[in-house]
Request: fold
Amino acid sequence: MKNGFTLLEMMVAISIMAILISGGTLILFKTLGSRGYNQADLNINTAGSQIMESIEQSIKYSNAEAVGANDREDCAAAGVSGVTASTLSVSDSWGTSVYSLVGTSIASNSATISSSEVEVTNLEFVWTCVSGAGDKVKISFRLNDTSATTLARDFLREINMYNSGI
Reply:
């Protein structure tokens, strides 16, 4: 009786090992790809929440002055539909703040609010003033991740302004 393996047995063993290795490699690459997507998703969600919280904390006790070129009279005339623009001007005891899209970031009086890990597009403010009720500002914007992963998400929030109204 001979010791060792035949050529056929060696070829079968090598073929099985090649199939297992290629399957493992495929799983590894899919895992690494999903990790990048998950990190981009986390970046966008974190940045969007931080932007919204920052703007809300700043404007909810302010007086709305204008949205774009529309002042309080324009807002009152528009009724429940409100006025829409890409800039918002509010004032409080510390002065006036203007929120707008500067390049791919949201800024307030030259201070950037958004993170460098995301790009902001489609910033829109809708100011609603109805007699007998406090003003409301609806903020919407789109964030794009700046990493290699192409991911975008829309954010929307309506803020009640406690010190602003007709």
